[in-house]
Amino acid sequence: MANEKKNVLDWLFDICLAIVNVLMSLLIVIIILDVIMTYFFNAPLKWALEVSEYALAFIAFLGSGWLMREEGHLRFEMVIEKLPQKVRSVFEIFGSLVCLLVSLVIVWSGIEVVMSLYEKGALFESVLQWPRWPLIAAIPVGFSLLAIQLLRRSIQHIKNFKALKS
């Protein structure tokens, strides 16, 4: 990625990575602060666990598209590398398309759930009493980004497969 010209989608994934990095940094600060407050002052931060959980959700979902772009998700490379190039390309195409389909189903369902929670004004029964929909919105947003990258990946693998036939 470093030598390639970046398009709008790549910039979007990089922005998501920056948000993930900020959230990770805040998460570290919150946890350290909570440990200090708990063990030295016997006054734990009641909101720390809740905010940490929300941050972890956004970290996981916002980072998934970037991680897919970087081919950082777990794979069975030991097996895949032993396959002939054409068979490997077919597996890559198949895997990307299946994951794309699953991602789109999750996006669709996630949007329905988020809209329902927003309309109901549902709140978490917790210390902060936050609305539920922003946290759940991380799911369709993250899977939308993942779906975009899976579509790009599928197209690239199809091009690679066609090049092998020539």
Automatic annotation (TrEMBL):
Tripartite ATP-independent periplasmic transporters DctQ component domain sequence ranges: 27-159
InterPro entries: DctQ, TRAP_DctQ
Main location: membrane
Methyltransferase among keywords: no
Cellular component, GO, one term: plasma membrane
Cross-referenced Pfam families: DctQ
Membrane topology term: Multi-pass membrane protein
Keywords assigned by UniProt, alphabetized: Cell inner membrane, Cell membrane, Membrane, Transmembrane, Transmembrane helix, Transport
Bilayer-crossing regions: 12-41, 47-68, 89-111, 131-151
Subcellular localization(s) per the UniProt record: Cell inner membrane
Family statement drawn from the similarity comment of this UniProt entry: Belongs to the TRAP transporter small permease family.
Name of the protein this chain belongs to: TRAP transporter small permease
